[in-house]
Amino acid sequence: MNRPSIGIRGKILLFYGGTLALVIALEVVAQDAALRAGSDFEDRLSRYHAVQGLRSSLEDYRALGERYMREGLPEQRSELEAELDSIVALSASLSRLAEDSQDAFFEARAARRGLDAWTPLARNALERRGEDAPDAYQDYAKADRIAVFVDGYLGKLLSLSLASGASRYRALAARSRASRRLALIGLVGAGALAMAFAAIFASSIAAPIRRLAEAADRMAAGDLDLEPVSADSGDEVAVLARGFNAMSASIRAMVEGLEEKAELERLVHERDIERVSMGRALREAQFMNLQDQIRPHFLFNALNTIARSALFEGAPDTERLALSLGKLMRYSLSEGGSFVSLGEELATLREYLSFQGIRFGERLAWEIRSEPGVESLSIPRFTLQPIVENAVRHGIEPKVEGGRVIVSARRRAGRVRLVVADSGMGMDAALLERLRASACGAQAVGDPAATGDATGVHGGDTPLSDAVSVGEGRPGIGMANLELRLAYRYPGSARLSLVSRPGRGTLVRISLPAVGLAGCIGGPDAD
User: Fold this and answer.
1) 189 and 291 share a domain?
2) Of 148, 283, 295, 438, whose Cβ has the fewest other Cβ atoms within 10 Å?
3) Do 478 and 414 share a structural domain?
């Protein structure tokens, strides 16, 4: 089975991953712009506070220095020296303000030079006052005049800084608004693009599935002249479409073959060939015709299941259905002859019941039992499958709570005994009589000279305590075909019995001669 390079799951993850990445990128760009604006604002604010702090410290120093020059207290001097060191440290921030503009550069340089001239004079005035020198106040007065000029420079610098900061803030605010607008436009565009891609993606998946469902409905209605369903999505839907097209072509070819066989049968009858010599050949042709009728009938039912699952289930179940259907088709279309081993027939039943288990879930329980050695015996192809299929379709499916199907095979007294039981809807007496009447007709066709109930359907009143329903609904192709084939293959030696109760289920028993694949009759049994 060709697996797609990128499946539906990968496309979904890629689509949502791309959309999420685009949204995250837009959000990152918007947040980055906001962070840069906030960082620039904080830097401007810190510069302003630094100059304002320097100016306040210089003002405090002048007021405290004036008192110290008058009073000369030692604790005042230590406080002035600490304030002086703080002013020197804060003066280093003037270089950052010089970057704002040319006027700010000149004002900052003037303030810095003024502080460089003021600092030694202030320190010298403090020392002279501590020594009680008579000219100490003169040095302080010189320093204070310089401090007045420095304060003026700092005031102008603050004004320039505020003006520059306000202009920069307006520019940052405008840039932030533009970034938010761009981010919003980007998000709206990303959302619209995501919706467009989502619509395209959904259409690429839903359109071929819808075409497949329509084609499946037409085929189920009997229209086999279908154009191939196209699906170029490259995912599981394309794989399903290729499988459906191949299956449709196979069914169409098989039906055409059946029509040719039917035409050949008609010509053989018209020629009125010798009765004895042509009897066996005619029975063989009729047997093969009935054998082949099972195949399209079975494939139509399986196709309905795939169509419903493709519409209502996810891709994993669809793949499992396709794989199971492939195995069933290989068994149905194989050309290994009209007889198969009982083991092959049981294996096909297991595959079919597993196939139906995907559809019914917990509503369908089943069990297949076989004795050791019995699976090597030979039986006609599709002996058990039509009975089990009718049990599921007409017995279990109409029942809300579902039911159970049991198949058993064993060998007794040189015969192989097969039992199919279900706990489905069961049949009323009228339907049961119609099935028995069709069995009597099958007996007459298979062996005109036979009498009695060698291949008839017999009733019984054995209660079905743990068993189940086969053939409910109307007598369809499955049971009628099986009765005719057993009559042709085992004239006078095959036995088929049917017991059913409405609402309790149905039990079908088949008894055939135990023949190996090489055509040898099985040996005596221990019991």
Assistant:
1) no
2) 148
3) yes
CB 49 within 8 A of CB 192: no
The CATH code of the domain that includes 388 is 3.30.565.10
Start-end of H helices in 91-234? 94-97, 102-130, 136-220
**CA–CA distance, 162 with 156 (Å, rounded to integer):** 10
Q: Is residue 2 part of a domain?
A: no
Closest to 315 (Cα-Cα) out of 246, 238, 245: 238
Residues 6+ apart with CB under 8 A from 11: 201, 235
Amino acid at 513: P
Q: Is 199 exposed, middle or buried (0-12, 13-18, 19+ CB in 10 A)?
A: exposed
Q: Is the dihedral of CA 140, 143, 148, 150 positive or negative?
A: negative
E strand or H helix at 395: none
DSSP string, 453-509: TSS-EE------SS-B--S-SS--HHHHHHHHHHHHHSTTT-EEEEEEETTTEEEEE
Q: Who contacts 284 (Cβ-Cβ below 8 Å, separation ≥6)? A: 488
120 burial via Cβ count (<10 Å: 0-12, 13-18, 19+): exposed
pTM over 0.70: no
3 state DSSP class of 404 = strand
Reported as a single tens digit per residue, the pLDDT across 96-116 is 665 667 777 778 788 788 888
- Classify the phi-psi angles of 270: left when phi > 0, otherwise alpha if psi is within -120 to 50, otherwise beta: alpha
Domain count, the chain: 3
Asked if residue 382 and residue 260 are part of one domain, the reply reads no
Q: What is the pLDDT of residues 210-245, one digit of tens each?
A: 877 888 888 788 777 777 877 776 667 777 777 878
Q: Which residues, including other chains, have CB under 8 Å from residue 143's CB and lie 6 or more apart?
A: 118, 121, 122, 125
Q: 75 lies in a domain?
A: yes
36-67 pLDDT tens trace: 766 766 767 777 777 777 888 888 888 888 88
The residue among 87 and 331 whose pLDDT is bigger is: 87
- Residue 103 tokens, joined: 């006027």
Q: For the chain, how far is it from start to end, CA to CA, in angstroms?
A: 48
Hey, is 451 helix, strand or coil? Answer: coil
Radius of gyration (C-alpha) of the chain in whole angstroms? 50
Domain residue limits at 232: 224-335
Please write down the HEC assignment for all residues of 216-245. HHHHHCCCCCCCCCCCCCCCHHHHHHHHHH
- The percent helix, strand, coil of the chain (3-state, each to 5) is 70, 10, 20
Does residue 151 share a domain with residue 61?
A: yes
- 192 in the same domain as 228: no
CB neighbours of 27 closer than 8 A, spacing ≥ 6?
Answer: 183
Does residue 52 belong to any structural domain of this protein?
yes
Structure confidence at residue 474 (pLDDT):
45
Instruction: Quote the DSSP letter at residue 448.
Output: T
- Considering the domain architecture, whether residues 390 and 426 belong to the same structural domain is answered as yes
DSSP one-letter code for 134: T
